[in-house]
Protein 1
Amino acid sequence: MSFFKSPSFKYLKNLLIGLGASVVMIGALGKLNSTPWGGTWITAGLMVEAFLFAMLGILGPDKDYYWEKLYPGLDKYKSHIAPLTEGETSADHRGLNADIVENKLGGMLSELQSMSKSLGSLKALQEVDFSKTGDQLKTMNNFYNRMNEAMNSLNASVEDTKQYQAQMASLSKNLTSLNGVYGNILTAYNVKA
């Protein structure tokens, strides 16, 4: 029975299944094309497949647990591995004990809870309605453009105000000179009269 569990038997079994199926397909192709060898090939392939399926039915399926990743050497048929509770299995592999497993599981539970909270936040973000965001952006862009126009207009009016102030200062100087001339005229007129 140990031969049927060996890796070489599993490889041989898969090889025969694949080759038998390919012979059946080639025979079917020959039969479809009405070649003289098609019947022979399809018969041989079907017989090989029938034998293999009978063998698979008798032997039963293999278990695929992949425990050898946790305990190297477990995939060898006659290996002797200490039970999980006995601590060290070899010099370079540490055994499992309840405290280590509990700590690891506790850490994994904390990480899962953190991920759950993060996923809840993402779900809340998913439920936000962004359908009107485009309209709001257009409105903000329009507001920004009008604000720029107003600022440009304000800058122009500031320049106009500076020119107005300069002109008023000049007018004030001219009026002061004109008042001085008028005062001199009045004084000269009063002297003659």
Protein 2
Amino acid sequence: MLITEGQLDDPRVQALLAHHFTSARAQTAPGSAHALDLSGLKSPDIRFWSVWDEESVVAIGALKRISQSHGEIKSMHTVQSHRRKGTGSLLLRHIFDEARQMPLARLSLETGSWPYFLPAHAFYKRHGFVECPPFGNYVADPNSVFMTLDLATGSKR
């Protein structure tokens, strides 16, 4: 597996991003979806990575800086054929390492509250994230679950 930064102009990456964007939005109440589209991921405050298995993109993820010490995980998605095989964990650990180099002290994320998102909740909890109140520009929403991780200790901050 190879992790590369950028690649947002690659049609294979764009196809996986479109799938992630469409499927996440389809599983979320109108007005409660926060998945970024391609143009949103091209923002200068966002870094984007893709995971490749030979010529196939198998996972994507991004990191948005929301303050000097706080970042947000965005657009994490692993193709079905590579789930539960460590691909998502590989990418998430890479994002942790990159965040520490920035240097960020805390990472947070927002995901849906609906059953479709339960595997994501379990995935992030396995990596030390805990539920938290809304952060950044988010507001309390029963359709959202907010999670955070202190990068130094691996626990809630």
Protein 3
Amino acid sequence: MALPKMVRVRQRFARPVVSDISRATRATLAACGHPIRGGDVVAIGTSSRGISNYATIVKATVDHLKELGAKPFIFPAMGSHGGGTPEGQLSVLDHYGINETTMGVPCRATMEVVQVGEALGLPVWLEKGAAGADWVCLVNRIKPHTDFKGSIESGLFKMMTIGLGKYKGAIQYHRANVRHSYETVITDVGREMLAKAKIAFGLGIVENGYDETAHVEAFAAADLEAGERRLLKTAKENLARLPFSALEVLIVEQVGKNISGAGMDTNVIGRPSNPHEPFPNDPRILWIVALDLTDNTYGNATGIGSADFTTRKLVEKIDMKATLINCLAACSPGGAKLPPAFDSDREAIEAALSCTGLLVPEREARVVRIKNTLMLGEIEVSESLLPEIAKRGTLTVLGEPAELRFDAAGTLLPL
């Protein structure tokens, strides 16, 4: 089957960036007015997301606390991720360069939780090791959530709810989301955690459209909610998106939990990852082809159900136990559904094009190819989109239209 010729295009996004990340992290921590003093034992909650410069930011947080004479340790605040086991969660952190050797402090994990309060008639859970510390602090990226829209979405409040609650809390809160809504649960549980759990500070990270660190800012407990709401507005302004609102086919080279909690960022693909909340249907993509899993997702293919076509190589990398733990904890079983899987990338792409209903899809189909939903600065688009590109001042064509390149096995050569 003939395939559309593709042309490389550069998108231009706003590009605020932090030049000295370690220095900026230390400065905002020193200025936020947190209560930590010498001798205090401090639990640093860390994320399972693929956050840019995350190890540098966490290390700067550790160093700031050490300079105060505090005794910090790191723990994974990541709900059911890492297969829902302490070893799996520490392994996720290690893959991001966060371990006892690089950080110079203990890294401890347990799935045990203790009750520290109550919200919405439900117990509020805190990881047992963190509960034994004098103070808890949180380091996480603030960004639009993949499941719902609100004034607080994915960030420090979510970490206080799902992350600090570990597997037990993740199951409980996601079930409560169905009854009360995501934003209500995250907000109410987060407020109770702030009131009862000795949260010293939250360090919020905002990234730009190029997956770079655009801003870091620390908030003492009293300022955390207002600070997160403000940074979410900035994160939404910075969010990279596809440049077209209607496509026949989107080719995604890699999906995974380190890319997005939903495998593919639903804010980019315009498809909700759960049926319980309204979600904007923009862009409108007829078919999505997912070609491979990232190594850093550890076989967790949560969100593969948002794709329409995939490959056998991706399916063979799936750890279905880890995927189901994550999807069922989130009350989103559809995220684990497997689309038709083909022996090669080329066959999967051809199948998607054959289902567009176009008479001459190689000339008519509106096709975009991306590496993943985090990396949208340079993409490939089909020739049919060139007239629209000419009208956009934020898009630059980088070359002449060319055939998609595959190796002898039909594997698409990397973007």
Protein 4
Amino acid sequence: MYRFWVELGMADTALVEEALIQVKGMEWSLEQRPGESVHLCAYFPDESSIEPAWQLLCRHLPRLKLYSPTREVLKETDWKNHYKEFIKPFAIGPLHIVPEWMRKDYRIPNGQQGIYLDAGLAFGTGAHETTQLCLARLVDTITFHPQFLDTQSYIDAGCGSGILSIAAYKLGFRKIFGFDHDPQAISVSRENARSNGIPDSAIDFQEADIAYGLLGRQADLLSVNILAPVLKLHAGLLLRAVLPGGTLSLSGILKEEGSEIQSVFDPLAKKYWQEFYSSLRTSGDWAEIAYIRKRR
């Protein structure tokens, strides 16, 4: 097993985070021990896999070519223990997101729900702020509208590991559709759903881009954890995919991009919905903006 990594400067860390959200299906992740710099790293079973993956990432983020990468050889036991240092359980409301290898040891409080994800998969374990902001918006839904859950519909645009769709099911949604442009993401999402005891028929996962994924569809809650430029490009389509009384949750937004996103979505929300209100929350360097469509 090989660990391939570069030490990032603070100025580039947010840019790399943003790129990794968009480039799903890749092996890269950010790791940081307390008091140390941030490492962009990946683990490979053989040396021949390293260079193609590095070049592909550099095409999405050319600045990475300025850094000097390091490769280390790890024993299998070293790899397993090293990776676990950076994967920890966390809770948002009644949801507890737990690495699969901690399933037997982590106690879920009575009346709350556990979501177990394979920490070795490349599509995220929910620890990133953008995903946590979307999870918080899901929890808001059951807090304020619990009586509608069994009939409400949910769409997870850019589902990645499927964590948001799985969370929606655990919270009580029963009409769930998740899509991603990457076929491997769909495979991973289905696998994660099964490992959480969710029947294949309960969540409809499909390979699709935004235009095809939302074609002819509307939902009571639509989560979109995608980069700001993509959100702006598809603003009208995203707004039209929300039912009256529903919510559009936009994440993958850097805090400094929030006003720019609102300048695009506000006039379109008024055009398509007439009446609405919005809500912004932040975590770290990231923001989530929710547009809530008023019922007629």
